[in-house]
Amino acid sequence: MKTRLPVARTLKALDRALAHLRAEGESVALVPTMGALHAGHLTLVRQARRKAERVVVSVFVNPTQFAPTEDFSSYPRRLAADVAALAEAGVDLVWAPDTAVMYPDGFATRVSPEGPALAGLEDAFRPHFFGGVATVVAKLFGQVRPDIAVFGQKDYQQLKVVTRLAADLDLRVRIVGVPTVREPDGLALSSRNAYLSAEERARAPALHRVLADCAARISAGRPLKAVMESGRKALARDGFAVDYLEARHAETLAPVRSVKDGPIRLLVAAKLGTTRLIDNLAV
Predict the structure, then answer these.
(1) Is 157 a known ligand-binding residue?
(2) What are the structural domains, with CATH classification, of the chain?
(3) Is 40 part of any known ligand binding site?
(4) pTM of this prediction?
């Protein structure tokens, strides 16, 4: 009979479960999530299982990374379904604290990241976001104390912020980035895809097509500035309201002028209706 997947909801329960997992000195990988799991998350879990002997998945919808105008209250929450999927995927432990556990009364300390967190991409449109991410990730690393933490490359700026955070604060965790998982038509998997109407969903793959076209043209030697401007216009024709479409240094996220400044990563954020989508692609 298969053992039920343990779900820790308090720090004491987490510590007991982690002590059991580490009893034989085995390595631990953490996959931080906000739940509403899809195939992309399960790909992260599979990668974590390849990298470590034990896998912990956190499920926590972090209020500090949502602005008052964003979708915190409506963000999908389906813990029972998530736990069932994680049990099937062979996860060893789910860490699912509530907000009062993560941010108890009197909580007064926050992490304020710089470097890639101030690249003028997501931070220009969601200035609260990376402070919330950095704070909750630092807490998760302190709570779980993983050897490895696995993040998706779809949230590319976030990946770079977390990588810098772990290095700068000597958190003794290796950050692993996993390539974006996509639908057959190229749309990056995201929990927010569920917000798209049928008509918007049909148009959404244009985001990846434009990225791929821009990357191909840059690789072929076309001027970078002209390619980016053409890409923005293409997205607008496809019905997107573009927040940014930028070519940046793949490691620092600093602006680049040509392929000589590379390696280059293309990053985009745009809205279809009320749904904001992000994606990125290497050149």
Answers:
(1) no
(2) 7-178 (3.40.50.620), 191-282 (3.30.1300.10)
(3) yes
(4) 0.94
